[in-house]
Design brief:
about 500 residues, alpha/beta, GMP Synthetase, Chain A, domain 3, 9-stranded mixed sheet
């Protein structure tokens, strides 16, 4: 029996179509219902569906008045505020192509994104890093003023046309611009039952920042598509304060990366959350220990999902079909997923690469300006994730790790090559290698190992790295070694660095 799972179908995306119009398709039917609440200890900033739709379409009008034309790209350098999703959907509503980026990126990193994507406009919070450029820039005050402009018309068209571009770290060390079509939002309907158990009456709280793609999808656009209410903690809210807000605002679902769950449980061994049905996790692997601790603390389960920037989440456990302990779950109904070997799908129980069929409506259009890198991700009709797995006869998939050296830093995939290239120009470093190391259960950190004439001050190396890399990419420690481990062919063996860390500090 081949390790291929395909159950149910996904209805074709309608045409003409708009991602933004789909997300807010039910706004007119419930104009006074709260679509979004930004939660603070002192209260909440509430947005009704009518107000949200008006702000988004007013922003679309404002962007067009800047001379933008459908298809133009808009780089987003905004912080963790409501301006982010409003500008994102406002751009898509009028046929522009937003490029959401992490506020942690440095000016040199953003310069590379600008060179690749050639945006026609930059939306920028002055506190967020951005290089000097001749490209027109709009600030937060400009965006807020646009909310009151007349509402633009939805720009409908081919669901295959480009809707947005997001960035992911490439295995070559070059961050890749992932191009997604408007149809990508249509594919997310398979998550409603296949992962969330999402209902129109739900109040879904997502602990992530507005400018994280996990938050944009799971925390905002999916609840709005369903007609539910999104709850987002304000930037100043700390993880230990989240349970109070969950209870105060009657949250029925809670979504976060495993690291947030860990921080909450560090301060709360028991929580009274009478309205909470269950939690949702994605971004990095959730340990069984953390899952059990949350169950004991809240009497609710956590349902985990697996995905990636190129195809969002497509394997998960759900309230209707909980994952078998130790597995990721199974492909959502309507998805076609296989475990691929050199000759195609392998037998059930055999190891291979987790792959999704190229017919999936959530799959990317490709990497911008990188046709060879795009082609390298496909084997026939299958998109290869780069993650190793094994499928049983019921379709449950066990995660077996990366097929390459990609790292996971708090839910962000990071290429070791990108970090190494940023550190190599340091005058005291001859060679450098980077890997992520599990320092304790549910906690992995990036570590750098380098050769050079002498050991260097870690603080100075950290400052050097953070001038060139977003904070989440910077190593946590820098270890001077006599030589880097290599194989018989001279190739660097990053996995062999982990025992060096154990020898230096004891059991990791």
């Amino acid at each position: 029996m081949l390790a291929e799972y395909h159950h149910g179908t996904c209805a074709p995306c309608p045409a003409p179509f708009s991602l933004a119009a789909h997300v807010l398709g039910g706004a007119d039917a419930q104009p006074d219902k709260i679509a979004l609440a930004v939660l603070r200890l002192s209260g909440a900033e509430r947005w009704s569906y009518a107000r949200l739709k008006s702000a988004i379409l007013g922003t679309g009008t404002g962007l067009l008045r800047q001379g933008m034309q459908p298809g133009d790209r808009v780089l987003m350098r905004l912080g963790n505020t409501v301006e982010f999703p409003i500008a994102y959907l406002g751009a898509i509503a009028v046929g522009l192509v937003p490029i959401p980026t992490s506020s942690q990126l440095t000016a040199p990193e953003v310069a590379g994104i600008i060179d690749t994507t050639q945006p026609a406009l930059i939306l920028r919070d002055g506190a967020i890093a951005c290089p000097e450029t001749d490209i027109p820039v709009l600030g937060v005050a400009d965006l807020r003023a646009m909310r009151d402009l007349p509402e633009a018309d939805w720009q409908l068209g081919d669901p295959e046309r480009l809707a947005y571009i997001i960035y992911t770290s490439g295995t070559s060390g070059i961050p890749r611009a992932v191009c997604h079509a408007h149809r990508a939002i249509w594919a997310r309907r398979m998550m409603f039952d296949g992962w969330y158990g999402l209902r129109p009456e739900d109040r879904l709280c997502h602990a992530g920042a507005f400018n994280w793609t996990f938050t944009l999808g799971t925390g905002l656009m999916d609840p709005w598509t369903m007609g539910a209410t999104a709850l987002i903690p304000a930037p100043e809210v700390t993880p230990e304060q989240i349970p109070l807000l969950l209870k105060r605002h009657d949250a029925t679902l809670f979504a976060a990366g495993p690291g947030v769950y860990r921080k909450i449980l560090k301060h709360h061994a028991k929580m009274s959350l009478p309205h909470l049905r269950h939690g949702l996790a994605a971004g990095e692997k959730l340990s069984e220990t953390l899952r059990r601790q949350w169950q004991e603390a809240t009497d609710t389960a956590i349902y985990e999902a697996y995905g990636l920037s190129e195809c969002s989440t497509f394997i998960s456990g759900s309230p209707d079909h909980p994952a078998t302990p130790g597995t990721l779950g199974r492909p959502q109904d309507g998805r076609r997923v296989a475990i691929i070997g050199p000759d195609g799908p392998v037998e059930t129980g055999a190891e291979g690469t987790i792959a999704v069929h190229n017919s999936d409506p959530g799959l990317m259009r490709g990497y911008l300006g990188a046709p060879e890198a795009t082609a390298a991700k496909f084997a026939g009709d299958w998109f290869l994730t780069g993650d190793q797995g094994m499928m049983d006869a019921q379709g449950e998939i066990t995660y077996l790790g990366r097929a390459d050296d990609m790292m996971n830093a708090g839910g962000f995939r990071v290429s070791p090559i990108e970090v190494e290239q940023a550190l190599l120009p340091h005058p005291g470093i001859t060679e450098v290698a980077v890997t992520d190391i599990e320092v304790k259960e549910d906690a992995r950190v990036i570590m750098a190992f380098y050769t050079g004439p002498e050991s260097l001050d870690p603080a100075s190396l950290d400052a050097f790295a953070r001038e060139r890399l977003a904070g989440y990419k910077a190593p946590r420690d820098y270890i001077h070694v006599d030589a880097l481990p290599t194989g018989a062919n001279g190739k660097l063996l990053r996995r062999a660095l982990r025992p060096i860390q154990k020898d230096r500090h004891g059991q990791a």
